[in-house]
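EI: anyone free to look at a 134-residue chain?
SC: sure, send it
EI:
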Amino acid sequence: MALPIQAISKFRPRIKKRGLARKRDISRWMADRTLLTEGQARAVFSDFSEAAKFYLLNRQDVELEGLGRVILDINLAGELTLNIKFEADFMEQINADFDKGSEAIENADNIGLTSSQVYDLWDSAYPDNLVERS
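SC: here you go
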């Protein structure tokens, strides 16, 4: 019997990624749209990284206006963790503006399906290895 997570992993919607936007790419983008040069934009990233480190080590979360907060925490093992909590407005805008068609999302037709419906998809595709349902 297949585990439910196998069905979810196989048939859940996934973003078709185009790669990773690196500092060089973002710096060029900023230079094309602001008064900053590409070098100045790169310096902003380096300076921000150092500033964020300073405040986080001072036990202060860091606000990224218009984006969210970098939140310092600690787990049970005593290891520090960082999380980013995005502002609701930012997430709403990303959700509203993102093209959720099949060009951008693998298994786009499965958006909105319940877990049970995803298990049914698995069962149809793999009749010899049905999903274990509780």
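EI: The CA atoms of residues 67 and 91 lie 9 Å apart.
SC: 👍
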